[in-house]
Amino acid sequence: MALEAAREAIERLSRVVPDFPEAGVIFRDLTPVFADGTALRAVTEALVEPFAGTFDAIAGVEARGFVLAASAAYASGHGVVMIRKPGKLPRAVLSQDYDLEYGSTTLQLHPDELAPGARVLLIDDVLATG
After folding, report:
1. What is the mean pLDDT of the chain?
2. Which domain holds residue 77?
3. Packing angle between helix 2-13 and helix 37-48, nearest 10 degrees?
4. Domain count across the chain
5. What are the residues whose beta carbons fall under 8 Å from the beta carbon of 40, sequence distance 6 or more?
6. Residue 129 domain-assigned (yes or no)
């Protein structure tokens, strides 16, 4: 039920933006979904429901992933760990480089925000660009 409500909300409210952030990329703007309380709740429930009881922490990837991760963390009674782009975190960080369909980047997090062996539900907005 939660999955169908989320799917319907995303289809109804998100906006497709061709050639963003660069030519050839089709971007799905989720901000209208986030702005609608009922839709945000449906998406949050659909994200958390399949993983209930299988994670100890939630992490969100900058920037739209923060919205979903915070919402999921609240709904599940967890805190949220922020995964940022370089230069945004003030203390020691763990870094990981990776490739995108339109370039490459690095993500960082504070290692002391996760307990050793923590099971992390990682949330990003991969729907935006695939």
Report:
1. 91
2. 2-123
3. 130
4. 1
5. 33, 34, 71
6. no
15, 101, 113, 119: which is the annotated catalytic residue?
101
Kind plus residue range of the DSSP H or E element containing 7: helix 2-13
64 catalytic, yes or no?
yes
Residues 60-110 pLDDT 10s: 998 888 999 999 999 999 999 999 999 999 999 999 998 877 788 899 999
DSSP state of 84: B
Strands 103-109 and 26-29: unpaired
Question: Does some domain include residue 35?
Answer: yes
pTM of the model: 0.84
Residue 72 lies in a domain: yes
- Residue 49 falls in the annotated catalytic set: no
Residue 43 lies in a domain: yes
Which of 7, 12, 15, 64 is flagged as catalytic? 64
**14: domain CATH number?**
3.40.50.2020
